[in-house]
Specification:
The structure is a homodimer of 279-residue chains. In chain A, 48% of the residues lie in helices and 17% in strands. Chain A is of the alpha/beta class.
Amino acid sequence: MTNAMHKAAVGVFDSGIGGLTVAAEIARRLPEEDLIYLGDTARLPYGTKSAATVVRYSERAVDLLLRYPVKAVVIACNTASAHALEALRKHTDLPVLGVIEPGARAAAAVTRGGRIGVAGTEATIRSGAYQAAIANALGTSREALGDRVVTRPWPLLVPLAEEGWVDHPVTRLTIETYLAPFVEADIDTLVLGCTHYPVFKPLIRQVLDDRFRGHPMTLVDSAEALTTELATLLAEHDLRAPARDGRRSFFCTDAPERFGRVGTVFFGGDVAPVFSVDL
Amino acid sequence: MTNAMHKAAVGVFDSGIGGLTVAAEIARRLPEEDLIYLGDTARLPYGTKSAATVVRYSERAVDLLLRYPVKAVVIACNTASAHALEALRKHTDLPVLGVIEPGARAAAAVTRGGRIGVAGTEATIRSGAYQAAIANALGTSREALGDRVVTRPWPLLVPLAEEGWVDHPVTRLTIETYLAPFVEADIDTLVLGCTHYPVFKPLIRQVLDDRFRGHPMTLVDSAEALTTELATLLAEHDLRAPARDGRRSFFCTDAPERFGRVGTVFFGGDVAPVFSVDL
C-alpha cells in the first residue's frame, strides 16, 4: 500500500551545481524516487562565507523545498552540512541528511592504516566538521585522533570543474600539488569532501599512479555514502517510492541557462526542466 | 579654498576583493584622497550571475556608499561596470566611473596594429561591453570592428589569485593555455578586463617571452586607465582633496577576516580598518 508520503519527493539542496553529483547518485541508485533539486546559484559559493551567513541562506533554501511535497531533505553541500545541519534539523520535522556524517562513517569503515585525509573547501575544512565526524565514527575524541586525520582545502577544483577542465594538464598539475601533502603524511583513505570533486576521481587515481608510484589511497565519495544511508532511512521509515520512473525537477536562484549547461557535467545527463526562483 | 566636497571621499565598489587593485592604484596616484571601499563578499562572484541580479546588487552597494560623504563613485568591478553602469548613473547625481570605458579608451590609444584582445570573467565577456566601448573609442561600429577585437573568458585566474598562486607552475600553464588563442589571432594589445588580473602582469609577460617567442603584446590595466580619468574628472570639477594623507576605510558584507588577509595580495599593503556591513 502506498500513500502520499511514499510518493513525495526527496528534496536536495546545494549552494550551486556541484550537488548534482549527489542528485545523480541518488537517481542512479533510487531511480523510482522523485527528486526536487535546488541550487542557490545567486549566492554561491558558500565555501568562502561565514558560518552565520551559511545557516541563514540554508534555512531559506530549505523553506523553499518544504513548499513542495517532500519526505526527506538532503544537504548536498559540504559547507552547508558543516555549518547548518544542526540548525536545519531544528528547522523541520522531516529527516535531514548531510554529506559529512556519511562520508566520515565510510572513511572510518574502509581505512586500513587509520590515516585519513579530507579535502574540501576552505569553509568545510575550517569548520572542523569532518574531523569531529571521523572521531565520532571511530569512537574516539578529536584530541585522541592527533595527526591521523589530515585536512586540506582544495579550492581550485571547483572552478576547474566548472571550466570543464576535467582532464586538462592544468588540472593534473593542480591535483599533483594538492595530493603531495597527503602522500607525504602517508594517508591511506581520502575523503573527497566537496561535491565537485567526484568528477576528478579518474584523474586523481592516474596522478597517484604516475606521480606518486601508485601510493595506495582509497577515495571516499560522500555522495555514494550518503545515498546508501538515504536508502536505509527511507526503507526503515517505510517511505520508499513504488516502482516507477521518478521525476526530476531543478530549481536555481540565478542564471538557469548556465545551470542547465554546466550542470550536465555533474549530473551526467540532461538537467531539465530548470526553474528560476527567488529566495 | 577647500569645502566639504573637496574633503569628501572617493567611494569604490567591487563584488569582492579584486577591486582592491583599483583602490591601490588610486591610493598610489592620489594619496591625498580619502577612500571608502565596499566589497560585496557575501554575494560574490558577480561574474556568473545574470545582468538583472548584478544591477540589483550594485544599486544596493552604491546606496551604502552614499550614506557617507562621497564625491565620486568608482565601480571597480568589470561585471558591474558592464551591466550596471547606466543604471547607477541614473541612481545618483554624483559622477560614476566604471573600469570598462577607460580600459577600452586606453587600448584604442596604444594599439599599433589595431588588433585588440580582451580577457575577463564570463559575464563581462558575454555582456559585449568591452567590444562596444572599444568600437566607440575607435569611432567605429561593432560590426565594422569584425574580428579585430578578440574576447575570451579567463575564469580560473580569480581563484588562482585568491589561492595566492601568483607565480605557481599551475598558473603559468593556465596563462599559457589562455594566451594561446590571443597569440594565434595575432593581437597586439591585451586588456586585462578583470580586477584580479593585474597581479599576474609579470607572469603574463614571462609566458609571452618564454612560450610565445616574445610575441609583442601591450597589457592594458584598466585600474591605471581609470585612475587617470578619475584624476582628470576631480580636477575639472574642482574636487581634488587638499594636500594631506588620505584615510582609507574598508567595508565588506561577509568574512571580514578573510577580506583583510587575502586583500593584502591585491592592495599591496595593510587592508585596515575592515568593517562588516549587511546590505
